[in-house]
Amino acid sequence: KLEAVIFDLDGVITDTAEYHFLAWKKLADKIGVPFDREFNEKLKGIGRLESLELILNQGNKKLTEQEKLELAKEKNEYYLELIQGITPANLLPGILPLLKELKENGIKIALASASKNAKTVIDKLQIKEYFDYVVDAAKIKKGKPDPEIFMTAAEELNLPYQNCIGIEDAEAGILAIKAAKMMAIGVGKTDSMKEADLIVKDTDELTLELLKQRFSINNK
Ligand code: UVW
Asked: Are 140 and 114 spatial neighbours (Cβ–Cβ below 8 Å)?
């Protein structure tokens, strides 16, 4: 039985990828490391320090742990500045109606984002009250594709993993959902999310009816 939907944030509920890109770009330019939109794709679903590590590697930069922490902090300051402007208008199409439908039908809602800024973002989007549980990224030891973040969400909701659907926009996230033994829905392009049980092109295709229908087919 479908009892919960666990959402990724960036790229599913709102599109913060551009803000992450601009913030990383500012930092990368400052330290003289090449960084473009294509590389930014690799950072989807990946935490802050891990993302920095990937960027430094590609620029062949070796830094001390202390220097890395300072750069990560600086990137986050740029990012925080950019997300101040987020309003409910930044919700991706169909997300608010879906949250309402889930709530009305007694289906639990959780957020499983690797971002330590997730609470600020859902606050700005004015959707905080829909969530029964928001995973604190700071408490997660292993990032996506490890299933820890999705398993934590289900455990906190007191629900079996198989009764949850996870929604993601990136490969690492889909792999994390599958490793947690949940049904995985991908939003976006098929080629980057081969393991997904269902892929929709746009968020406005996500309705409770579609979720229920696919969930029952999947569990036959
Ligand atoms: C990510 O980059 C996903 O996380 P944060 O917002 O914590 O930097």
From this structure: yes
Residues forming a β-bridge with 109: 5
Give yes or no for residue 143 CB within 6 A of ligand 1: no
pTM of the model: 0.93
Distances from the Cα of 49 to the Cα of 10, 183, 219, angstroms: 17, 29, 37
Q: Residue holding tokens 């802050």? A: 48
Distance CA 122, CA 3 (A): 22
Question: What is the reported pLDDT for 121?
Answer: 97
With a 6 Å cutoff on the Cβ, whether 115 touches ligand 1 is yes
| Residue listed under structure tokens 């609470």 | 119
Complex ipTM over 0.85 = yes
Nearest CA to ligand 1 atom 4: 115
8 catalytic? Reply is yes
Average pLDDT, the chain: 96
Where do we find the tokens 């997730």? 118
